Amino acid sequence: MxxxxxxxxxxxxxxxxxxxxxxxxxxAALVSGIISYFYLTPIYQxxxxxxxxQTKNEQSVYSSNEVQTNLQLxxxxxxxxxxxxxxxIVIIQLGLDMSADQLKSKITVGSEKDSQVVNLSVQDPDPKxxxxxANKTAEVFKSQIPNIMKVDNVSILxxxxxxxxxxxxxxxxxxxxxxxxxxxxxxGVGLSFLLEYLNNTIKNEQDIERILELPILGVIxxxxxxxxxxxxLRRGARKSTVRGETLGS
Length: 249
What we know:
Capsular biosynthesis protein; membrane; 249 residues; transmembrane; Alpha-Beta Plaits; transmembrane helix; alpha+beta; four-stranded antiparallel sheet; 4 strands; GNVR
């Protein structure tokens, strides 16, 4: 016999396990909020921009070939910026207590497609330290690239600055709580259906028909105490009526 589940049964299952779904969702949201607000360290980001473009004098002619050359060099520059040749100098000049690999993990370098501008971003728990690392890395890169590549086509376009009230880029507590609520709902619904599937008790006549694979001939209705008392009152009223009719005749 093919087993089918109706939408009504699905809603009944969710209604029966509603307390479980709500509990899991609330717990997930509370845990996420507590961790995001009290345990995760806020991380700030500072960014600077580097322009890759050969310095020209007034009589120089603009050449598209040089632009293409600069664009091709950007990928190489992105690697050089985070190399120990640059970062070791930054560590010494700023007096940082970390290795080149640790500093590299804080730095992100990238550029837009067909753009000669390189974006250098630094993340750190201290916004001032993030800005100092970004600016110093750009300065060291600009001063060292002529020695490394034998070219002088780098200039600092914009320096990193610290605003009066900087906002951390992570964690994002509200987003984390929203994600936790969605995950909690999914987990609660999934667990509700799992518990219902693992429940082998016979709950209604359909379960008997499904397990025994026999047609149901009749069903004995369940009568509670209130219904029994109501039936007794009706029966007593009928008897009183019959007696009255008998005496009257």
